[in-house]
Amino acid sequence: MSVGLFVGIWVARYLGPEQFGLLSYAQSFVFLFTVIATLGLDGIVVRELVKDKTQRDVLLGTAFGLKLIGAFLILPILAIAVQLTSNDNYTNLLVFIIASATIFQSFNVIDFYYQSKVLSKYVALANTVSFTLSSVIKVALIMNHAPLIAFAIMTVFDMVVITIGLIVYYRKSSHLKLLNWLFDWSMAKSLLKNSWPLILSGFVLMIQARIDQVMLKEMVGNIEVGFYSVAMRLIETFAFLPMIFQNSLYPSIQNAKNDSVELYQNRLLNFYRLNFILFLITAIPIFIFSEQLVVFLFGEDYQPAGALLSLMAMRLFFANMGVARGVYILTENLMKYSMISMVLGTTTNIILNYLWIDEYGGKGAIIATIISFFVTIFLIDMLYSKTRGNVFLQVKSILTFYKINLRS
Prior knowledge:
Blueprint: H1 2-31, H2 35-38, H3 42-51, H4 56-81, H5 89-99, H6 101-104, H7 109-116, H8 121-143, H9 148-172, H10 185-219, H11 222-259, H12 261-298, H13 305-331, H14 335-360, H15 362-383, H16 385-399
Helix pairs in contact: 1-5, 1-8, 1-10, 1-11, 3-7, 4-7, 4-10, 5-9, 8-9, 10-11, 10-14, 10-15, 11-12, 11-13, 12-13, 12-16, 13-15, 14-15, 15-16
């Protein structure tokens, strides 16, 4: 990730705010529809692998088949969606190049297996190989003055390399074969029955997370998207930390629920505490040194992104707590409720974006997103009796973060 950040900064400096903004817009536009490829299966497949190890090949084979179908469905849907934008042909070409990467993303079901075994080191190794190779090629592209489209193609290349790495580790380290995977229609129906709320909520979450960049491009322009994307890139460098802990700790929290309510509550409380501590460690320095950090890394051309980065530091709090809340939602099987809360939060985000982006640009988009996260993660949960106790658990974790005890 460190190497990827360094090269990403170099790419941003090379492309400049306008072209980098265009590339970021194309990526965000595609991300709005990637939930069609994931089909909300990620957490459910991990949960089922933890519950019943004998169904491994059927679960992985069925999930792979469903995700592959979803990946191919993205292309015609995108063809319709781009007609509703002001995109030119070149922008649409970038969108479809980046979208083709989702086909290879179907192989990340291998990652689900490693998550269920708490063996994420193999996935990390595959990602490290991909980042290293990709970084070398991107540097070569910069040195040879490559056009913007070459960096869009690299998005596909990255996914191909990660896929190859996952397949190799799956065969060599686990001594398992993809040819043993089986697609089962009854299993597919069962997975989709459980995942359809997650498909909808995932789609809504993507809108909540990415609609700001799409609306910024349509309402203000590519340059503002470039500034916003630089700030987002730096924030996302730290935002991946909660995801790492989630992947590693989710199986133990799921198992604790089956063993003891008290143990389950303690582990969930400590997971909230951990995410709050991560927020404090990362957000405070970012808030204080945001402008200096942006200018040092990206250059004077990106100086306006400093103010945006400072605001985004607060977004980390909701991002971290949202990741931890996601474990609670999945463990308690509250996917339908999660969808409703996300719809309300995303609706809030879109309305506030529409009201504030014209006048405040990127700052308005960030504040709108923060408010929408508050609605989704805290306000709606407080109003619903079944989740109110979880809100109290979150508040308790904030007030007693210094009591964290990961040994439990």
